[in-house]
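Weekly structure sync - notes
Attendees: PM, LS, DV (DV joined late)
Agenda: review two folding runs queued last week.

Item 1: First target. Sequence and structure tokens pasted below for the record.
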Amino acid sequence: MEKMKRNVVITGASSGAGRATALTFAKNGDDLVIAARHSKALEELADECRAFGVLVKAIPTDVSNYHEVINLAGIAAEGNRDIDIWINNAGVLSIGAFDLTPMEISEQVVKTNLIGYMNGAHAVLSYFKSQGHGILINNISIGGFLPVPYGAGYSAAKFGLRGFSAALKSELKSYSRIHICDAFPGFLDTPGMQHAANYTGKALKPGPIVYDPFRLANAIYELSIHPRSEKMVGSFSSLMRISYGLLPSLTRGIASAVINTYLKQAKTITPTSGNIFNSVDYGHSTHGGWGIPGKPKEHRKYIAIGTIALLALLLTKRKI
């Protein structure tokens, strides 16, 4: 029997995890409605996805603008099509001491990373209820459990997202065929850091363990087939969740020490607002070039070291 093509909406699709997710769903035969602010990058992705023989609509959208998100949902439902899956993925990043970061930057981070997801959910839920089914998948990241030093606005949005999603799951409990799923990946090898607003005065790079964005894309696709409330993506994100849950003060202290040490050694650059308010004309690939991702042996080494360190700290704490 031929697989029925589902109608899938993906926000933040022009680069990184969103782009990888779009390509993954297209490869598996689903029709797409892809959204992002950069129209040229969006059209280029649409052409790549159409090569798999699927229908693709590319809709320039700023998720922080509710009217644009309502328009996106309306276009996705044209021709009386169901919206089967909606993937909230669009996000921006700002790094810098909170008091030295312009407040309008932090405000826009929250508008995009939290209100943007709420806009998506609000726009699609009436369609889900009307058609009697639907899957909403939120790409939240480990940032929903682990606060990011020098990323107060980002952390506020991600922690808020986790609470918003939990409330939504309770509210929709009686709708057995409507699913709210959350994905929590670790650091990804995407252009996100290159796009970030940066008020540290130093060049940025992600942590020592970065995962291939296609690993997250595959996890999101799996959620679309077998929905579940949440999915941790990568052993590192699971380890950090446990670490912060058991030893929050110590975990915050270690994270702060690691970042401060890096910033002292990093190359000096001019502060930038990155792509916070407008899309940028660089970094529209799936990968960010932070090294070749997907080295499981290397990852296992770091995870093993981290696990041993965490267990040692727990034993020490118990003795104390």
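Item 2: Second target, run right after the first with the same settings.
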Amino acid sequence: MIQKMKALFTNTYESDFVTTETAKPTPKKGEVLIKIHASGVNPIDNKIRLGLSPYASPVLPAILGTDLAGVIEAIGEGVTNFKVGDEVYGLAGGVLGVQGTLAEYTAVDADLLAIKPKNLSMKEAAAIPLVLLTAWEGLIDRAKVQKGDKVLVHAGAGGVGHMVVQLAKIFGADVYATVSEQKSAIVKGFGATPIDKNTPVEDYVNQYTDGKGFDLIYDTLGGQSLDDSFKAIRHYGQIASCYAFGTHTLATSSLRSASIHGVFVLRAMIGNENEGRKHHGDILKQTTRLIEEGKLKPLIDPRKFTLDNAIEAHKAVSDGSAIGKIVVDIV
């Protein structure tokens, strides 16, 4: 008899989710079956639902959802680094042909996972993977932050931004973050100097870098924020952006010999790149250690979402109402 599970299907773009009973997956070689306890929601999830991310969108109908935290219920052939009963988290699906996490169960490539931090709830753990991996790839893998660097983070209280701020502090950087006035206390609490987002670029560059520019800038917004980064970077500085999808004139940054790094964290899943997937799992293993040592923590929106009102969670990541990460409780 085929075992069933409840899942939310997206049948057409821009439509509400449809609660559906579907076959519970069986883990293939290299996969584990996870009973999902919580599913993190990111702006990219909502863009995929709306059909605005053609480079990541699955063939519909599909189950969306990228982040998860849950418990391993079965092990596929060849998996030796996990066992039944392990509590895990990861950036695990919701793109192209990979099942998403708005469901009771999913079968996941074990390379994408790590053991959940013991001092976090499932909900807290599910808030971490996509934003942490995006932050890590830009700040550490690509821009190679160094101790003593002056780092500017655009939207430092946002999902990716609050992870960039904390990682930069862990690596010994002097961190500044643009934020709205009402969120300045958040970045201050993470050890960064808040800069009102309406402050002219020249003013904060003069105030905090004596007009020289920042050593490293992480842009999480794209558009004008990325253009501002070109003006605020020092000569030979490093700019990372997870939102460089617009049209920009690079003259300002080119004249400063700045390096620009584009970050697209879903690449490993879309490209089925074994090396990239394993790297994600390895980063999350390091993240677990940092969290258990008290050096890193997620910022969680306090609202309660479940599979029954997950469409509201999707809207909340895009309407500006979120304070921290939105998470859907599955169990």
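Discussion on item 2: The chain has a mean pLDDT of 95.
Action: LS to circulate a short write-up before next sync.
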